[in-house]
TrEMBL record:
Domain 4Fe-4S ferredoxin-type: 189-221
PANTHER family membership: EPOXYQUEUOSINE REDUCTASE
First-listed, main subcellular location of the protein, grouped into a coarse class: cytoplasm
Keyword match Methyltransferase: no
Official protein name in the record: Epoxyqueuosine reductase
Subcellular location: Cytoplasm
Class of enzymatic activity (EC top level): oxidoreductase
Taxonomy of the source species: Bacteria, Pseudomonadati, Pseudomonadota, Betaproteobacteria, Nitrosomonadales
Keywords assigned: 4Fe-4S, Cobalamin, Cobalt, Cytoplasm, Iron, Iron-sulfur, Metal-binding, Oxidoreductase, Queuosine biosynthesis, tRNA processing
Domain of life of the organism encoding this protein: Bacteria
Description of how the protein assembles with itself and partners: Monomer.
InterPro entries: 4Fe4S_Fe-S-bd, 4Fe4S_Fe_S_CS, QueG, QueG_DUF1730
Gene Ontology CC entries for this record: cytoplasm
The UniProt record lists the keyword RNA-binding: no
Length: 362
């Protein structure tokens, strides 16, 4: 909601309101709420350097918005504070991640994507939080986001005390690890700002050394062009051949750096039914998923974040996984069934996978 005139909030007890906002947020299912200012100057310099190095790959949207990403007041005029929120997503019933990745016949899907798409759920909860604030104090300016606009989510969450940026570039919390989504409310309320969390990574580099493709090129810096999450989700074209064997059976996203992080022994399981595992995606066989027609893909993944990559890239990713699987007649037969697929992209990856399967049998 936008208020056209400058609002005078001098009559409000802003410290008490901030405490109330945190309590209301917890009641709505968030595990933590923080409040940050709008100065991201240091982060802006790092962002511009990262973009200049081309580490964003094909993610042109990272550069298209200019400095709006690092200047909240330019994205939403009048923004003085950012209310940040985090919500756990790891489903309690999901099959053990390492066990799935160790079985080359299975498809590993990043644990955040096993249930329903988080965007609508979190944005709706943030909207409810803003409406609750409004019902208590009257009209104020706000706009809610969750991974849906040029917003420096990790930086804002870090500044607001929800955690610190780990060397893998994700937010870490001593009480919750990193298995959570982030969301924000931009507002003109001059709320008291929370103190940032200190960095607790120390000399640990487990996230860096665990990355299958060495995408964490330096502490706190990820080269997206080597990141499996980028390759399987953001990249629209062909996956570089030299990286395909390193992807293993990861067909949508990658959790390796999080799985290696010692702080995730404190990771919380989600209490949200929408994030529960759907369609057995926590432990599905590659060959079974590869058989899905486009109609099945659209129907089964309706409401899933996976659906946005489309059936073509879904098959591309699974073909790579099949190429990396232990050689078997079932895998070869599955790949051969897609040799005449109308997509050049799919056929290219199928041919590569078949050649890899056959060469490893000899």
């Amino acid at each position: 909601m936008h208020v056209d005139t400058l609002t005078d909030y001098s009559h409000l007890d802003l410290r008490q309101i901030a405490e109330n906002i945190k309590a209301w947020g917890m009641e709505l299912g968030f595990q933590a709420i923080g409040i940050a200012g709008n100065d991201l100057g240091q982060a802006e310099a790092r962002l511009l350097e990262w973009l200049a190095q081309g580490c964003h790959g094909e993610m042109d949207y990272m550069a298209n918005h200019g400095v709006k990403r690092s200047r909240p007041q330019e994205l939403v005029p009048g923004t003085l504070r950012v209310i940040t929120a985090r919500m756990a997503y790891f489903p309690p019933q999901a099959r053990d991640s390492i066990a799935v990745m160790d079985d080359s016949s299975k498809a590993f899907i990043s644990r955040y994507a096993l249930g329903r798409d988080y965007h609508k759920l979190i944005r709706a909860r943030l909207q409810k939080l803003a409406e609750k604030i409004q019902s208590e104090i009257g009209p104020f300016q706000f706009r809610a986001f969750t991974d849906s606009a040029p917003v420096m989510e990790v930086e804002l969450a870090s500044k607001s005390g929800l955690g610190w940026r780990g060397k893998h570039s994700l937010l870490l919390s001593r009480s919750s690890g990193s298995w959570f989504f982030l969301g924000e409310i931009y507002t003109d309320l001059p709320l008291p700002i929370d103190e940032p969390e200190q960095n607790h990574c120390g000399t640990c580099t487990r996230c860096m050394t665990s990355c299958p493709t060495d995408a964490i090129v330096a502490p706190y810096q990820v080269d997206a062009q080597r990141c499996i999450s980028y390759l399987t989700i953001e990249l629209k074209g062909s996956i570089p051949e030299e990286l395909r064997p390193l992807i293993g059976n990861r067909v949508y996203g990658c959790d390796d750096c999080q799985l290696a992080c010692p702080w995730n022994k404190f990771g919380q399981l989600t209490r949200e039914p929408d994030f529960a595992v759907r369609h057995g995606l926590d432990d599905a066989k590659l060959t079974a998923l590869f058989r899905w027609s486009e109609e099945e893909f659209d129907a089964r993944l309706a409401g899933s974040p996976i659906r946005r990559i489309g059936h073509e890239r879904w098959l591309r990713n699974i073909a790579v996984g099949l190429g990396n699987a232990l050689p078997s007649d079932d895998v070869i037969a599955a790949l051969q069934s897609r040799l005449d697929h109308p997509s050049v992209l799919v056929r290219e990856h199928v041919v590569w996978a078949l050649e890899r399967q056959i060469s490893r049998r000899e």
